[in-house]
Amino acid sequence: MALRLHLALLLLVLGFIYRPASSVSMGKLANSKLCADKDCSYAISMARAINDFTAPDCRFINIKKGQMIFVYSKLIPDEGAGDFWSGSVYSERYVDQMGIIGYFPKNLVTETQVYKESTVEIPTTDMDFYCV
């Protein structure tokens, strides 16, 4: 019985230590964000890209001028930090990117449709900036 307990504990510890090589925890872009609901599962708005943006790392998404983006959260910038929103591309032309959520600079988009006027402020976690 004690051997099983020790083996289970060892596997649990190894599970916390081991991370696949393809995933990485990146730095936080902000400490809090605005969402449509407490789970950030609903879109706040729809926006159109007014310029291209090439993702500098895995936290971000590429966007093309004219592309429509569902906005799921708006980061509340810390002092000296950039102002970013998170969203997912909506486009038949870029169907391979649909469903991928990432950050982009808010000044590169124009909101075209607001779905939720009132928002909820919640703290960000390390998982908000985790790349797979």
UniProtKB/TrEMBL annotation:
SMART domains: SH3 (SM00326). It comes from Megalops atlanticus (Tarpon). PROSITE patterns: SH3. The keyword Signal applies. Keywords: SH3 domain, Signal. Residues 1-23 form the signal peptide. One of its GO terms (biological process) is cartilage condensation. Residues 42-114 form the SH3 domain. InterPro entries: OTOR, SH3-like_dom_sf, SH3_domain. The keyword Membrane does not apply. This is SH3 domain-containing protein. PANTHER family: OTORAPLIN. It holds the Pfam family SH3_2.
